[in-house]
Design goal:
single chain, 253 residues, alpha/beta, Rossmann fold, seven-stranded parallel beta sheet, 8 helices, globular
Length: 253
């Protein structure tokens, strides 16, 4: 999909969906900067990719919601390769909690990481991409919880719905610079975190029309398409990858 020698930053990529996206990009010949707040996780992820896929993958450990670090990531990519073509704001946190007792600390941390980190990474990346004749591609990671209510996820769902509106709004700002911006909304996905729940796979297989929860490859394959040259005329859109769950929305509880 015309990825060779492009330069990408992917946040929250030490494991799960982000790691699979980085692996796919590296396999396609992209110079990948893999970010995670956990330095050991980022280092191990890069090692795994280099052993399995080869290519060029570099760890950038740090807090992707910190504006100074965000600019450092962009500057590092441009210093090393002279350009920045793809940015995938995948980092996010989920802090469950009852609405009636949800703490301000939890609320503002969710907003800082999920919204602030994405907004300011998009800003820093777009400022670089608009200098490039080729523009670039931005992708945000939303969730089906931005479309359907989930118990104890009011703040999280609110943040994910906001990301989809951000992508729409940025069409006005970025299209003239050949920058497209989209959002992917995964449904139930089998990752290291969700597999800690012994009932997760069985529950979501039962209530998902396609008969199974998503794999990280299902999500990563969609993400790679949306940041490829084949999707350059797609912008301001959200693609839900959930095996049909949001069409009928049975509760897992």
């Amino acid at each position: 999909m015309s990825f060779k020698n492009k330069v990408a930053i992917v946040t929250g990529a030490g494991q799960g969906i982000g790691l699979e996206i980085c692996s796919g990009l590296a396999k396609e010949g992209v110079h990948v900067f893999l970010n995670d707040i956990d330095a050991a996780l980022a280092s191990n992820a890069v090692k795994k990719i280099m052993e399995n896929e080869g290519g060029n993958c570099i760890a950038l450990p740090g807090d992707s919601s910190d504006t100074l670090f965000i600019q450092q990531m962009v500057d590092t990519a441009v210093t090393q390769f002279g350009q920045l073509d793809i940015v995938i704001a995948n980092a996010g946190i989920t802090l469950f909690g009852d609405f009636f007792t949800y703490s301000p600390e939890a609320f503002f941390r969710v907003m800082q990481v999920n919204l602030g980190g994405t907004f300011f990474l998009a800003q820093a990346a777009a400022n670089q991409m608009k200098l490039q004749a080729s523009g670039g591609s931005l992708l945000f990671t939303s969730s089906v919880t931005g479309h359907q209510a989930h118990k104890d996820l009011a703040a999280y769902g609110m943040s994910k719905a906001a990301l989809e509106m951000l992508a729409k709004n940025l069409v006005i700002e970025l299209s003239q610079y050949k920058i497209n911006v989209n959002t992917i909304a995964p449904g139930a996905t089998l990752t290291e975190r969700t597999l800690d729940d012994r009932e997760y796979a069985a529950t979501w297989s039962r209530i998902t029309p396609m008969g199974r929860a998503a794999t990280v490859s299902d999500i990563a394959d969609t993400a790679l398409f949306l940041v490829s040259e084949k999707a350059k005329h797609i912008t301001g859109q959200t693609l839900i990858v959930d095996g049909g769950w949001t069409s009928i929305s049975p509760s897992p509880f």
